[in-house]
Queue: 2 jobs
Job 1
Amino acid sequence: MPHKSPESPAAVHASALVIDTHADTPQRMLDDHYDLTQPLNGGYLNFASAKEGNLGAEFFSIWVDPKLYQGHYARRTLELIDTVYQQAAAHPDRMMMAYSPNDILRARREHKLAALMGIEGGHSIEDSLGLLRDYYRLGVRYMTLTWSNSNDWADSSGDIDDPSVHHTQDGLTDFGKDVVYEMNRLGMMVDISHVSDRTFYRAVITSRAPVFASHSSARALTNAPRNMTDDMLRAVARSGGPSSHGGVVMVNFYSAFISDAWRNAWNAQAPERQAAENAQIAQWKAAGIPITYEMTDAMDKQWAAKIPRPPLSMLIDHIDHIAKVAGIDHVGLGSDFDGIPSSPQGLDSAADLPKITAALMARGYSAEDCRRILGENFLRFFRDVQATAKQLQAHPDQRPAITRQQPFRKQ
Ligand SMILES: [Zn+2]
């Protein structure tokens, strides 16, 4: 019997369905009229880099800056959703809107980038289950319960130690639990990136479907409060009902989440950086200049460039750690492209994704392992969430009652 020649990393990557669950590109599209046919110009994602990196599906992040858009979160949310649709409409030959695992597979057969959407931060629903349902109808398939800001019903790791911010008693208020139940019923994936530890555990206990982290790394390796402890990694892997295959942790590429040295240097320059950036923003505002994503992003990148980038191996360490602690079936990629001012050396855009496969194989990961990490794990999780939604919709009696009265009482 002739030996089957081992597949090369390039061949493995080319054969894989590659799914990334977090890119902040919609802000570029909306504020700076960025089009994915254009050169990267400092960004991480366009059609050319996606093709070179064999990126099959991208979750475009619908992120509403809670300070800048205070008072009209829903409007900004709807405009960001629209900008993703506009991009797909402008390039029907290269990109298609996708709403399900089957859509992702269809896009792949048609050699198009599957475009999906996730809302980053529960403040976008403005405490309304009706808005949550509307966002689902518009195609939003996951929601991060909080961004760096706590909202009225869930707490964030970003301000959990700030006594001036109101926090919940148990991680989720009764309304917050209703939000999770309604997401389960709709088939919207529950994303626990960014939430406080208490909210994390409350969400895991509450959710009928498995949960996931759309863009988080391992706290055992890099001590960021937004990263996940080993216990949390295991809890995600085991989340969901008895018929579930568990959730997934999609690793964030941000230098501050994969390297303590980088993180410490970034935190050390924070006072100086924030003062300089605030002064610049005040100057723009005074001059009546509208502040766009690319303007604030460029400021952060200037400061980040003063700190040496971590090697790619440190990102691979995080993938490896999560694969070992949570299990090989519970890890994937959540780059945070266009939402981070620094990434590891050699990882400059979506075009560099094959380097991850090569590095994993160099560490002994099999072709099959790599394909799971690159996209199959996430696809299985997405299917589980949809199956749970079907069950809940078929048996509405088995589902806890939804709060009918709004506004709800804060806890
Ligand atoms: Zn984020």
Job 2
Amino acid sequence: MTWEAVIGLEIHVHLKTRTKMFCGCELEYGAPENTRTCPVCLAHPGALPVPNEQAIEWTVRLGLALGCEIAETALFHRKNYFYPDLPKGYQISQYDAPLCVNGRFAVPGADGDHEIGITRAHLEEDAAKTVHIGGAGGRIGGAEYSLVDFNRGGTPLVEIVTEPDLRSAEEAKRFLQLLRQTIVELGISDAEMEKGTLRADANVSVREAGESGYRTRCEIKNMNSFNFIARGIEAEIERQIGVWESGGEVVQQTYDYDASSNMLTARRTKEEAEDYRYFPEPDLVPVQPPPGLVERLRREIPEPPGARVRRLEAGLDFETATGLVTSGRDRLYQAVVAAGADRRAAANVVMNQLAGAGVAPDAVDPGELAKLIEGRETIPRGTFAEAIAASGDPGFSAEKYLAEAAVSDVSELDPVIDRILAENEAQVSAYRGGKEGLLGFFVGAVMRETKGKANPKVVNERLREKLSA
Ligand SMILES: [Zn+2]
């Protein structure tokens, strides 16, 4: 029996606006606890929210990059629930009139592009951060006590929901990597999973190949890296196939994924539909993005990463092209190739060697890097690695580095020169008899013998000395 996975993602992205979504508190990662608060984000009675225009504009920008329709009128709603990290007793979110709907985002695969539907992208505020102290496992049920840091409360948060269009764990991972790169390039978030500024949950179900409906799905949370997401989804797909194949039935449930054990732990049985008693936020007017602004933002959207993978793949291979784009190094790669470097060598240097040497792509002059790559055969391997590490330094000159790195050590060059002179007695006499043009012949022979690693200037000097002796 052939099984097919059906995967949808729900992604949360912290916007890196200077201030919070509905108040003037500054956002600062790592600031001392509860020092970035005010009556609005602490929900003091009578405090009124004022929406952050930058956050609205950035959400529109992201929506456009995801191919969404931008609503003429969007609403903020109150999503009511009780939790210690939510002092108002509700979260301001968007419900049935979100800012961005009906998008499409192309994920290139080895067998063509796969368009993933974007159901919606809406703007909301994040809750505060709860830290559970003591007790077993640090979970709220077993903790001795909990602390709340309200600095995070009110951070602008975009929630992106996809259609269940993804068909494998690998594809879900690639979607997220390309989405992350899009977000970073739009300049609206650092989207770092380890800092929690990008979070993703997955809804997973399986069905037999050819089946048209959807079976019961489970949600996986708590995956904090792209690889863990792929592994968590993979583990859930296998678990569900096992359940169906052994005659059982998958029960709707939320799981936490623990990467260290590759285990899924059931969190709680999901209620049919949680009742958040949504209603329009009475303290905020509807959001109506001006059409002129939307058009301007639309013109500024960079080329989608999926299209860039397709373009680069032509001269490389799918995996390398994807790696270059998802690491944000494809523009440097293209500039280096445009400056004359070999594609494969350029890809390897830009992807692996610069990263290995800790050199930031934007610190590098593509023209100099191209020269260095072209000259790489003429210098010792270790020296090339040193040169790569130095290539991010201001004023780096490939020419200078290549010349200095060439073998200039006379004790190394002399035996080669002596041997070549001994092997070419006729040319030596001719030179000494006045045919000085033969110097080039000797230099060429030494360079060939040293596989181009000799410093031509030193070779010239030594040859002249020895030939005139
Ligand atoms: Zn505040």
